[in-house]
Amino acid sequence: MLTLLLASLLMTITPPAAEWRTPFESGGGNTTATHAECIGYYQKLAAAYPKQLHLAEAGPTDSGQPLHEVVLSADGDTDPASTRRKNRRVLFIQNGIHPGEPEGIDASMMLARDLVQQKSLQKLLANVTVVIVPVYNVDGMLNRNSTTRVNQNGPAAYGFRGNARHLDLNRDYIKQDSRNARSFAGLFQKWQPDVFVETHTSNGADYQYTMTLIATQHSKLAPALGQYLQGQMLPALYKGMEKKKWPMTPYVDFEGQTPESGLRAFLETPRYSTGYAALFNTIGFMPETHMLKAFAPRVHATYDFLKIMLETVGQQSAAIATARAAAAAEVTARTTFPWPGPSTKPNTKPCSSAATRAARSPAR
Ligand SMILES: [Zn+2]
């Protein structure tokens, strides 16, 4: 009991000094950073903590401005090959693919700061290197407005979903029509992360939970990796969120208008982030906060989710390494790749049926 008490005291986070408050923290809880504020904040962190936090450009985007990567490591090692030799797991967090869903942008700024400033958190980087893309859809974030997500409960102003060429980047992972996607692929392949998280806000159904979760479909991963995800990782994430008073539930689709019509799990093909990640034996997650909850609890729930993810990857580091190695061996030896996805038969139903269903399906 005493040990537990001491452990929780050691994890206590002291409030940041005034000069390190993010726009979200100093803006009354209904403000998200602009692109300039976000990158400027990471520049300031990188200058103040050059050993632990490294900021670099990571290729072009369709906006004309570069993509950025932030690397947090215990000893300042930003080399992926060396990181792998040190048997460290890589947790890759991507924010702002849909900049009107910006909780992850603000939560990651706070988490990066706390990881370098709070002594109690620094041990989380002992065997995990964290890579953050502060903003993926730079283009959309620059297109700031207050009217394209009017049915969402804050923030007051935010970016636009499409990129500079009106592409939805969460349909472009495998197709790579955008420069953003090509730069991302370079970054992803460079790091070959163990775990990938892309932060979102829901667009549709109403329910009690502040946080919901799309995990990559375990049944389409190699067996060792799927079993690990289902048996060890997901229970730890759900338990961790429950302890933080953010009970979480899987994000589901309805067959019709109501849950009574049946629930469907989402099969994420490689056009989506987690589907792309799964092609490389990377476990992918899309946390989706509930658009009808206020912005502040959505940011805090995202912060806690990312921290719990980091703790879990560290605690289960050996199991992740074993499962991924087994998955790589299994995929290398495989000679056929049966696709269990939707039938390729032409859709002969009236087009209104498919169109209505698409309209009801919450977007990711
Ligand atoms: Zn989204």
UniProtKB/TrEMBL annotation:
Low complexity bias locations: 352-364
Residue segments, region Disordered: 336-364
Keyword field: Carboxypeptidase, Hydrolase, Protease, Signal
Pfam family, one: Peptidase_M14
EC number: 3.4.17.-
Domain Peptidase M14 intervals: 31-364
GO molecular function, one term: carboxypeptidase activity
Domain of life: Bacteria
Endpoints of the signal sequence: 1-17
Cofactor: Zn(2+)
Top enzyme class: hydrolase
Family statement drawn from the similarity comment of this UniProt entry: Belongs to the peptidase M14 family.
PANTHER family: PEPTIDASE M14 CARBOXYPEPTIDASE A DOMAIN-CONTAINING PROTEIN (PTHR11705:SF145), PROTEASE FAMILY M14 CARBOXYPEPTIDASE A,B (PTHR11705)
Listed name of the protein: M14 family metallopeptidase
